[in-house]
Amino acid sequence: MSEQMSPQMDGRRRYREQRARWMNDPEFRAVYAAEAAKKELWLQLIEARQDAGLTQAEVAKRLGVSQAQVARIEKRGYDSHSLNTLRRYVAALGPEFALEVTIQRRSAA
What we know:
- The chain is 63% helix and 0% strand.
- By secondary structure, it is mostly helical.
- It has one domain: lambda repressor-like DNA-binding domains (434 Repressor (Amino-terminal Domain)), CATH 1.10.260.
């Protein structure tokens, strides 16, 4: 007697199959990677600030800006950071923090 797949298990299977189809598309993969990188940046900024033991208000005071501006810098999906803003933000966290930029070159297809 064959067991029927639960709706939850079937949904997971269908999601994995669809995701595999999407990931086979180079254009989709590029957009996916770009969005993942944006997510990483905001999360890294928040985690670094928390590791420094600072609130957004304290970082704002060190930068000479409003707390709302710090919140915007840390906002998920925000992608208009200038390199200077990121340098200043990281410097405001303290000397034990550093900004590292990595350039990833795309391989020729």
